[in-house]
Amino acid sequence: MGAALLGLAGGTPAFAEGSWSSYISGWQSGSESRRWTDGNSDAVSTSVGFSGCTTDGGSGFQSAGLVVWKDVFGPDESKGLRANKCNRVYWGDLASGTYYFELNGVTSGQFLDVSSVNTQY
Fold first, then answer.
1. Distance between CA atoms of 3 and 53, rounded to whole angstroms?
2. Of the candidates 9, 22, 107, 116, which lies 20 to 30 Å from 34 by C-alpha distance?
3. Dihedral, CA atoms, 40, 27, 55, 90, nearest 10 degrees?
């Protein structure tokens, strides 16, 4: 089953250098978001917000593990794993670079759908 991250629409709040919004459909562990470039021109913490989360697991959505990676020459650099419970999770003010997040698994089920994803940096 193919993973999809579609419906990209940009919007930049006054307090953040950048942001983007989308949704997730049928993600499995290892699926990756689009890349974004953070110029580190502000002190905003990089964050990923979820709402409308569902999985195919019998006990429903509980938590999704997300890892933010810095895209570099050679092995990408992990900026840490966070548990998103259909809320907003933070990685702090990251250095300049290109980033993406990866699904590191869900607590129930195999496939993740999220009706609204908002990434700020």
1. 15
2. 107
3. -10
Three-state DSSP state, 35: coil
Across the strands, what pairs with 49?
88, 118
Element (H, E) at 41: none
Paired residues of 101 in beta bridges: 68
Q: What is the pLDDT of residues 59-98, one digit of tens each?
A: 999 999 999 999 999 999 999 999 999 999 999 999 999 9
Residue 115, CA distances (Å) to 7, 41, 52, 77 in order:
11, 30, 5, 28
Query: Rounded to whole angstroms, how far apart are CA atoms 116 and 49?
Result: 8
* Predicted model pTM: 0.86
Please compute, for residue 8, the number of CA atoms within 13 A of its CA located in the half-sphere on the CB side. Answer: 10
Residue 2's identity, in one-letter code, is: G
